[in-house]
Amino acid sequence: MTNKNIFPEDLLNPEQSRTLEALLELVIPKSKDGKLPGANEIGFHEFIIDFNLSYYLHDLKEGLNSINKSSIKENNCNFSKLSNEQKEILIKELRLNENYFLEYFGKLVMVCYYQNDKVIEALGLETRPPFPEGYHVDEMNFELLEIVKKRGKIWRDA
Amino acid sequence: MKEDIVDFLVIGAGASGAAATWSLADTGTRIMCMEQGDWMKQADYPSNFRNWEVLQGWYPDLKKTDWSISPNVRNLKADYPINDYDDSSVQIHNYNAVGGSTVHFGAHFPRFHPSDFKVKSLDGVADDWPIDYQQLEPYYNLNDRIIGVSGLEGNPAYPPKKSHLPPLPVGKKGDVIARGFNKLGWHWWPADSAIISQPYEGRDKCINLSTCISGCTQGAKSSADVTYWPLALRRKGVELKTNCRVREITINKQGMADGVIYYDEEGRENRQKAEVVILACSAIGTPRILLNSTSQMFPNGLSNRSGMVGKHLMLHPWCRVDGYFEEGLDANIGPVSCNITSHEFYETDMERGFVRGLGLQIGNLGAPLLGTALGMPWGASHHEMFRKYFGEKITVEMCCEDLPEACNQVTLDKDLKDSNGIPAPKITYRYSENSRKMMAYGEARGRELMEAAGAWEIKSATAIKASGHHQLGTARMGKDPSNSVVNEWGRSHDVRNLFIVDGSIFVTSSACNPCSTIQSLSLYIADNIKKNITNLFD
Fold first, then answer.
1. Can you give the pTM of this predicted structure?
2. I want to staple B148 with a disulfide (CB 3.0 to 4.6 A). Which of A59, B196, B247, B400 is the partner?
């Protein structure tokens, strides 16, 4: 799904939504060949709800406001309006100062992204749980053991 | 009303309790096992779900799940808290259910070496066991048959032994790492595993779900709930009571155990009388119950006249090295635990700067997508880096022998209690200098191996905190009642109708995973009880 408006307006105001979308795109942008979507295209809002993370919304709003505030302070401009290079510089600086919001947010984005069907398929993997089909693993080459067998016993008598 | 007295009361339905109950069923007597957890439901296991990686509980800061390896994080009704945070270098891992921690274990299933039972005689440290490999061997064989051990015969690190099923497939990563071992001239061998590689005894074979440590939905992992328990519960006289948490073992005027006080599912206090009590609650749970069982006769805890209950906790210091290889290994698929093992550094060589040794274990640490993604950079390089690392990691873990030290111990926490108000265990544990040297040596060898195998990047971690899977010691065996808790067949020195069959009776820890030895010891003790049934309390 594409999502210009990834959270309903009663949850995030328009500026918070723009900041979030810019941040998602910065964490995982669309791949150069276009096969893998950006993190701003995979339904972060649904993930937060499905993942039962409604408690996180408060922290999310605060974090987004804080990033935008830093952007205005450093660049006199909203975060969403910065160039890609400016965004990267600002986020890099914030992460260097152990920004808890960003680190946690980044982990959530990874979890959201790598459970998304579009992403899994684009990686050439199957969109299914491990059970019941399981997976095939080849036998290894046991001829490689000949050298170990030739060496003989290595345990100590006791 | 006539008092209900069972002949044998086994506390704990995990690896050792299940084996003991099954064996004692031969007596035709009444055997009751009490377990604080419940039966597992395979339909609930994470491998049934798309988000299995998160459900496994490896990322508790992202989502708390029922599958975390730490009872403090899970905090389920069956769990009791463990203070492993105030004074311990290692976090304790366990699972409380029918099957115990075998529900969660990786199922690497090695035996001890013969030398592991003679540590003092051979290397001048710790103590010898009061039994030896030869005495335990028939029980290793019996246990391997019931479990359905997969492996390859002829391992030169062991005396000859039978494998019941072919080894599990390892895939291309096996060839890659084997060439590294061969280049260095080091021993390696396909690992013995408690996972069935072929259909066995009514169970279907492993289908490489790669989710072993959060329960095997296929039922191919030989956890005690799918092996011993179905066999035991078919036998006359065997009863398994779940959701019952034992608070203490009670004694009569003669100082003999006469039963337990326990809490049922609704939290009601109950009593169960028994002729013989058998503890099978792990090296954390067993000393906890003994220390909570105080009386005028045993003011410092039951069976603790030696003062040894809780002492000599051993936890296998752990380190790991990850190597990243060329495209196409699919190294994230297959059984999670040890696929290939090396005992090159298992036996003592004092030129290494430490006594005793370590085992190398090549495994697949699961969580392939998230395990890779969480370490990847943000931004334009993310996709390229993810493709470079995903599925290309081979991990070697170093399981180091932990020597018994009285200062490493389980005591009762003065404040922490479980949901029934029973005092919780507190862990005091520090690495010894010998362990630190062993871990440093192991880490260096792991790096050497990855380099020899052709890794283009190598990462390592040592003294890993989240590694308290193997809890041993704390009620050790011995012939001398002044420095041990149980005798050479698991009977308490102080209480003649009290037995211990779990990992707490280990004298030393070896350098390998203990479940095979725990279950074999339990079978050995149960067999001795049966052999001595007519004069058991003499």
1. 0.96
2. B196
